Amino acid sequence: MKNSFDEKILEEAHDWVKANQKVVLATVIQTWGSSPRQVGSRMIVNEKGDFSGSISGGCVESAVVRECIGLIKDNKPYKKIEFKVSNESAWEVGLACGGEIAVYLEQII
Amino acid sequence: MKHSQLKEIIKKKASKTEFAIVTNLGNGLSEIYEPGKSLSKEFELHKDQINNFFKLKKNGVIEKTEIFVETYIRPIKVIIIGAVHIAQYLVDFAKSLNFEISIIDPRGYFASEQRFPDMKIINKWPGEAFKEIETNENSALIALTHDPKIDDPALQHALKKKFYYIGALGSKKTHANRCERLKVAGFSDTQIQSIHGPIGIKLGGRSAPEIALSIIAQLVSETYKK
Predict the structure, then answer these.
(1) Do A5 and B98 touch (CB under 8 A)?
(2) Which residues contact B116 (CB under 8 A, 6 or more apart)?
(3) From A60, A79, A107, B77, which residue has the greatest number of CB atoms within 10 Å?
């Protein structure tokens, strides 16, 4: 059986929007291999780069923050990004666990 | 996602409605899905698959499409008998784990709002209190008073309704006496053995937060076993 182990990220997103912050919602939409967070895991990012929640075990959060800030700057409504392990960048951005994830970014408008 | 939609989602979550968010990853549009409710054309085409995800309580992208489905299910109901010290910590743990807690305690001096702010406390005897809470085999019971007058009727209710988790605080001796009383009341050995008593996994701790942690750990573990 499942419980709805909900991390209340959407509620927090709402609070941020109410406080006049620009907010991007990042959601794990697909995973392949061993990835730390399951599909549906969420994180929010504002224009200053503050973030809450998680979409991996800390492996790709920094890259997602950068992408989210970019989305706000370019005033784009949404974007899909994928993270794979690549040898050159694995230690900086990428999943050390060998998994792959796809993340969907969307601005709250 | 529009802010108005975000607000609607939060409202639905708060009212414990089961629903799904469907998002077209190709054009950024999203809608709220509920069984029986019609969707816009682009999502209506995939209604059967969306409904499948919903029934399986699954999140994911529908195969060969760009439609992402995220389902929201009701939190599990956990009924605590006894507004005691351990219950205060259980309430804290349950908040982050998203269990829906109700506390039953007929003793008014325990069940005060000051001890349990923002908490639903039913200040009645279990027999009366359970009339106010809808329970089924997906509910859980944590009996903490170790007073047979209060715990026993609640345990009997939970056994009859086949709660997936039933735990009762008390020493081995207290629990043996409790089992004996339930036997006399007509419950089978299998039913009685399904009660976790003494409650909780073995952590070794004795303080109220440690006992609460051992109980909540057992509850989570039993949730995934089912």
Answers:
(1) yes
(2) B83, B87, B88, B91, B103
(3) A60
What is the mean pLDDT of the segment spanning B32-59? 93
Tell which residue, A98, A104, A51, A58, has the closest CA to residue A77.
Answer: A104
- Closest CA–CA distance from residue A88 to any residue of chain B (Å): 29
Half-sphere exposure of residue A50: CA atoms within 13 angstroms, side-chain side: 8
ipTM: 0.88
pLDDT in tens, B185-204: 999 999 999 999 999 999 99
DSSP three-state, residue B176: helix
Q: Which of B84, B138, B76 is nearest to B101 (CA)?
A: B76
SS3 call for B48: helix
Q: Which residue carries 């439609």 as its tokens? A: B67
Ranges of each domain in chain B = 3-72, 77-225
Q: Which residues of A touch B9 (CB under 8 A)?
A: 10
Distance CA B113, CA A28 (A): 39
Nearest alpha-carbon partner for B134 in B16, B35, B215, B36? B16
Cβ atoms of A27 and A41 within 8 Å: the answer is yes
Q: What number is the average pLDDT over the span A76-104?
A: 73
HSE on the CB side for B116, CA within 13 Å? Answer: 27
**Distance between CA atoms of B9 and B7, rounded to whole angstroms?**
5
| Domain B77-225 bears CATH identifier 3.40.50.410 | no
Which candidate, A52, A57, A67, A65, places its Cα nearest to that of A94?
A: A57
Those residues of chain B whose CB sits closer than 8 Å to some CB in chain A are: 1-3, 6-7, 9-10, 13, 23, 25, 28, 30, 57, 59-61, 68, 70, 72-76, 97-99, 138, 164, 220, 223-224, 226
